[in-house]
Specification:
Blueprint: E1 3-10, E2 13-20, H1 25-32, E3 51-54, E4 57-60, E5 73-75, H2 88-95, H3 105-118, H4 124-130, H5 142-157
Parallel strand pairs: 1-5
Antiparallel strand pairs: 1-2, 3-4, 3-5
């Protein structure tokens, strides 16, 4: 099958890659670009494990073709930390023990970051609504919600 040349910005870096027209953005990120933080959970857009941002909009990368990344800005979990310095959401997830196996965690973090960029002072109900598309099979959601609200407060004070 023919491969297509794609130019995009991923986590602030200009990137070029070749992909087949049927490859999803998730497959391109993991298999072509070796950005394996984005996980495949369901491959149907139902679980949120593959959440990334495309031009600032929260997106299930399993539902987008890699060729659709042409000219777009993609944000993945690998772009959250600044070198060794964790993003406040990442730190708060650790502090609140808001993760277990790690399959859903990258997608939840990307989704929570997208929320806080859009709404820096969400209510608990707004956080729950925003993260409703991210399914976690290992833990309850209370620690996740607490971590997001705690990070939101820290980011507002910064």
């Amino acid at each position: 099958m023919a491969r297509v040349h794609v130019s995009a910005t991923i986590n602030g870096n200009a990137v070029e890659f070749l992909c087949e027209t049927r490859q999803t953005l998730l497959q391109v990120l993991r298999d072509e670009l070796h950005l394996t933080g984005t996980k495949e959970g369901c491959a149907t857009g139902d679980c949120g494990a593959c959440s990334v941002t495309v031009d600032g909009r929260l997106t299930c990368s399993c539902l987008v073709l890699g060729v659709e990344a042409e000219g777009r800005s993609i944000g993945t979990i690998e772009g959250m930390a600044e070198g060794e310095k964790l993003h406040p959401l990442q730190r708060k997830f650790l502090e609140h023990a808001a993760l277990q196996c790690g399959i859903c965690t990258p997608g939840v973090l990307v989704a929570a970051k997208a929320l806080l960029e859009r709404n820096p002072d969400p209510t608990e109900e707004e956080v729950r609504y925003w993260l409703a598309g991210n399914l976690c099979r290992c833990t309850g959601y209370n620690k996740i919600i607490e971590a997001v609200l705690d990070a939101a407060g820290e980011l507002r004070r910064a």
